[in-house]
Amino acid sequence: MKLAPIAKSVILEYESEEIAADLEKEMGAALAKLTASAKTIKPEDKIEVPELTEVLDPVTLIGLVLAAPKMVEMLAKAFNTVSKKLNKYFKKGPQPQDDETGIAKNIIEFTHKWHSAYIKVLQFALEMFGVFAKAKITNTEDKKKATEMLYYTIIAALAFYSGVSSAVAFKKALMAQDIAAASSNFSLASLETAMTKVKSGEVKEFMQKIMV
Q: Could you tell me which residues come within 8 angstroms of residue 12 by beta carbon, excluding any fewer than 6 positions away?
């Protein structure tokens, strides 16, 4: 899958085909790093936090992930370079609404092809680190929903740090990609909340740790 044509006002000095190839390559490399790291998880890496009744909220989920330093390290290795690549190609700072939606749409589109693979690895990691156990999540669908929330919170952060400051722009981009219709576990409301939390700084510590 190639990136859709990117608005000229968003491009710095590269052709869209070149950007697409570069970002696709980096996303694949990030997945490889994440997968390799997941294979090294040990019992002592499990989190030690009080048990919760649920974790289907972006901020709560991020809080649990932060309690597992090894997982934060894994995510940092995976997404750090991706973040830098995006910042290389897209303007930072406030953008006109149309440009923001365009940036978010392209980021979502180029990451969507990797969705299933990332969800599989992240769900394995959340299981191994004891996040699901601490949150008392035993249902398979609930586990997938929580995993998707983590994944798209990260994507929301990538979009935010690439110039998308509006949760509305991010939501429009998601709807344009018809991702909500493709997954019964997907919640636009949850991800709009995630984008807002990224913007408001409630998950700032997490994002700074994985996107230095």
A: 88, 89, 90, 91
- What are the DSSP calls for 40-57, one per residue? T--GGGS------S---S
Lowest mean pLDDT among 94-98, 104-108, 111-115: 94-98
Contact 46, 132 (CB under 8 A): no
* Helix or strand holding residue 14 (H, E): none
Residues 114, 154: Cα–Cα separation, whole Å? 13
Write down the domain spans for the chain.
Answer: 16-210
What six digits make up the tokens of 163?
């110039």
**CA–CA separation, 191 vs 194, rounded Å?**
5
Rounded CA separation 202/211 (Å): 15
This prediction's pTM: 0.82
